[in-house]
Amino acid sequence: MNNRLLRLSLCCLGLIFWPMANSAQLVIIIDDLGNSYSQGNAIVELDGPLTLAFLPHTPYAVSLANKAHQNNKEIMLHAPMQTAKLVPLGPGGLTLELSKAAFKTTLVKAINSIPHIQGVNNHMGSTLTQNNQAMQWVMETLQDKQLYFVDSLTSAKSVAYQQAINHQLPVLRRHVFLDNNKDTTALTRQWNKAIRIAKKSGHAILIGHPYAETHAFLAAKLPLLAEHDIELIPASKLFLQQAWQLFPSAPSNNRYDLSYRQSCCNDLVR
To answer: Would you say residue 155 lies in a domain?
Structure first.
């Protein structure tokens, strides 16, 4: 069977996800889930394939992640990482003081605390994500677990993206924070910025939080994405599409892009 027929067959079986014709794509990640059931449940019940990032060892992470999975949401670990101001990280925090063994054990326990996870992004981490050694340990662990990484870019000096590339991991970088300011005017400005980036580059990564204001804003805006020719997708779908764009590729141990190449995901910060 030639490549064209094989790809068509896989598409018919639902194993290849094709983007909507002429549409740009938007990945929306909601961070900081797990501590509040009401806030998290409101986000879980939003319509659309959001990507939800849960803090490890939090009271409602497991129940909400299970419900989110049933509601066709993608699940990530929101891994707490050391900040420049030494903000308390809570359970599962990764710091520069940890030995390599303790660092990796902490991260593995955090990964195992959340069901259905497909990837990881950083919670805070303005110090840790600048450290090559720490980010190497993160990517080695994710490589073993076959998980992708999204750099939340809490520091412009982050080396996380490059370390993920070095370890041939599927990786994205945040383009826009939605709700640093929860005023409707500010939310609209950031939303429009993400739409512009998606239209210009083909996709954009938008990160928000489970605030009441953010929930209300998304509830109003998500149904309107099609009017802008924007397709809302989970992060892993973007990786899978990139993998098939490289078809045929040499097999490896990564479930998303089996021989990941930087050229297929050039997410420059704008």
So the answer is: yes
